[in-house]
Queue: 2 jobs
Job 1
Amino acid sequence: MILFKSQELKAQFDNEITSTLRNLLYALAGFLKYTFGLDLEITSMVRYDAPVLIHWYKRAADISTQNFTPEQIQKTKDWINNNFLYGDIHHDSCIFEKAGEVVNGTTSTGDHLHVQTIK
Ligand SMILES: [Zn+2]
């Protein structure tokens, strides 16, 4: 099951993000439920606060890890990176970001997995 932190995020999921990202998120929701019995909770997707962020290009989503154990976070990150290649470029499709960490000028408000796609 996919949970959305806000109604705006649900609308972004349905209408704004790329189909490649949407397909990855559907697969991820299946993995989390099948493997750990966990729901996928999306806390952020499309953002215009920093143009350099992949969020601005509608190709990134942040997943809450509030209900995950450290082992579940690691296994989820590995599953995404092993199954979803970020094109031919050697970037990871999934990065764990801790609360308070500053990434590309934006401060993370809570522990999350940042997921991104090449298109
Ligand atoms: Zn992110």
Job 2
Amino acid sequence: MRKKHREGTKIWYQDKVKKLKRKCWSLMSEYVRLRDKGICITCGKKYPVMNAGHFKHGCLDFDERNINCQCQGCNTYKSGALDIYAIKLEAKYGFGIIQELEELKWKKPFYTYEELEQIKTDLESKISALKLAELSG
Ligand SMILES: [Zn+2]
């Protein structure tokens, strides 16, 4: 059993934020893999199990440009294959994207509960839109 914190305390709030952030990340991962049609951004291959790989690690978890579909080989064993990742990002989002993500990474390290709730709602509707589009071909 996980320890329950007393409602209204700071630690209770932080725990609540952490759980919601985890939920948001699993939605983000699902969204990105659907959006990219299961194709790895760095090697272009498709496997039964795909990941959502960061370009900038440990930040910008919910920036659609920073997170792209990757295979396990590129994401884990090649640590993101960042040299190729950078080239692919520029091709996808245009020149300047690397600099922009670099600047953004310092700006928003934490999310409030309300921000995460908004992110969750947005991702859920994007996921259902993609699933609908997939169904109708
Ligand atoms: Zn790959």
